[in-house]
Specification:
The structure holds 2 protein chains of 2 kinds. By secondary structure, chain A is an alpha+beta fold. Helix content of chain A is 46%, strand content 24%. By secondary structure, chain B is mainly alpha-helical.
């Protein structure tokens, strides 16, 4: 370190108590000789105090009482030990009682420290267990959602009324598969690769339009479509696929009566070659 | 010593009062700084139960070590805060048993659990505002050095940047905060 200046950041590290003892000693020395740096150091300390104040949060009131009790007990213990030897004319009997009292106080202090330590360990364990519990609760929630999603998928796939169609892009490459359950008008679009987002607009045979947010059912790969109207045919179009590499569009027509859709009437999915 | 009620008493008088060993002085010290220190501890340990223990332990340690405090080397609050931060980081590491765990959540304002916290000081500057004024790389440095207790050498290795960059980023982060606090003060006047 230069005797007259410090590189940027050193004073901040010094204020945070992060520097090694040798580095801190160097900063002490340089600061002592440089009033400008002393001013800068004070400004950094002010910054750190304001930063801490910005996170300020009132502790529960009982903590204050516990702190004051703890320091009161410490002060009493240290005061007793300081005062005892200063009794000039203590009788043998008194000395015996003082030694005995000191012993009792000592045992009490050791016991208290032992119990306090145990209590702290217990509280640490409790905090660890609480964290574990939170993690487990989150995992259970995720599993429940996942199970629900798989049930939805199964309910469509297991139906005897389901038909499935390949979705291909303009190059003839299969990009996914559409499963259409005629009985409950649910469709499941399973894309070949996970995508970030899928949205669709449905055009019903009665000329009405509906924007459908597609719900990702499993790992951003299976999308459930609920067709709300009992229309004769539904054209699902403008299926905007946001994949990792960009956007694409798909249009799929579904008819109510058999055959729901003919292979050659399936409109090709127009997706970027690198997408999905 | 004349006993003054806070916040009238300045830090110099408070220190002199504390040197007398008066418990009332220590009570005043607690009243003055406990909220700021508790806030920082809470963000480090991320548990109210542990934060309460660490706060208590910190103030007992401050009381016990007060003779070692040297006014010529820095402000009382800086010294106290470093004691509390070090204890909080030790507790966090002992609970999580993984000192290198990414603690970027420490600076994630969305993790402030208002329902379960006790009471926030209404006069404080919003931490969300603070996060908004800092750049991501500055937040990362504050996260590692201030909340996770990494040394600058460890932080440089962890983030994979030169040691000098760690220092300059910390320097620029505090400069940014200083400008923010100054502007905030002017706008409040």
């Amino acid at each position: 370190m230069n005797n007259n200046s410090l590189s940027p950041g050193i004073l901040e590290l010094y204020a945070l108590g992060i520097l090694s003892p040798d580095e801190s000693a160097d900063v002490d020395h340089i600061l002592a000789e440089n009033p400008d740096l002393q001013q800068e150091f004070k400004a950094i300390e002010d910054d750190l105090e304001q930063f801490a104040n910005a996170q300020s949060k009132n502790p529960p009131p009982y903590i204050r009482a516990q702190v004051m009790n703890a320091i009161g007990a410490q002060q009493k213990a240290s005061g007793d030990s300081r005062n005892n030897p200063s009794q000039p004319h203590t009788s043998q009997s008194s000395r015996y009682w003082i030694i005995a009292s000191a012993g009792i106080v000592g045992i009490a202090l050791v016991s208290s420290l032992f119990l306090l330590n145990n209590l702290k360990n217990e509280r640490n364990t409790l905090a660890s267990l609480q964290k574990e519990n939170e993690k487990l609760a989150t995992m259970i929630d995720e599993r429940t959602v996942s199970l629900g999603a798989q049930n939805n998928i199964l309910s469509i796939l297991a139906s005897s009324n389901v038909s499935s169609f390949s979705a291909v892009d303009q190059f003839g490459e299969t990009k996914g598969r559409l499963y259409w359950n005629r009985s409950d008008r649910k469709a499941l679009f399973i894309v070949a690769k996970p995508v970030q987002q899928l949205t669709a607009t449905m055009y019903y045979s009665d000329k009405t339009t509906e924007n459908i947010p597609l719900t990702s059912e499993e790992s951003k790969q299976a999308y459930l479509l609920q067709i709300n109207k009992a229309a004769d045919s539904v054209l699902i179009t403008d299926v905007a696929v946001q994949s990792v590499n960009g956007f694409g569009n798909a249009s799929i027509k579904i008819q109510k009566e058999k055959p729901l859709i003919k292979r050659n009437t399936l409109r090709k999915i127009n997706l970027p070659k690198t997408g999905m | 010593m004349t006993r003054k009620k806070l916040p009238d008493i300045d830090e110099k008088d408070l220190i002199a009062w504390l040197r007398t060993g008066d418990q009332e002085a220590f009570g005043s010290l607690y009243d003055r700084y406990s909220a700021a220190i508790y806030g920082v501890i809470s963000r480090i340990v991320q548990s109210d139960i542990v934060a309460e223990d660490v706060l208590q332990e910190s103030f007992v340690k401050i009381w016990r070590s007060f003779a070692q405090y040297d006014e010529s080397k820095g402000r009382l609050f800086t010294w106290m805060l470093n004691i509390a931060r070090n204890l909080a980081i030790d507790h966090y590491r002992s609970i999580n048993r993984n000192p290198t765990q990414n603690c970027s959540a420490c600076f994630d304002v969305d993790l402030i659990d208002i329902e379960h916290s006790h009471s926030f000081n209404p006069d404080i500057i919003g931490l969300r505002e603070l996060v908004n004024v800092l750049k991501p790389d500055q937040i990362e440095i504050i996260d590692h050095l201030y909340y996770q207790g990494f040394t600058h050498v460890e932080a440089a290795e962890k983030i994979e940047i030169p040691l000098g960059t760690v220092k300059t980023r910390l320097h620029s982060a505090l400069k940014t905060l200083r400008i923010f606090f100054r502007d905030k003060q002017y706008s409040n006047e």
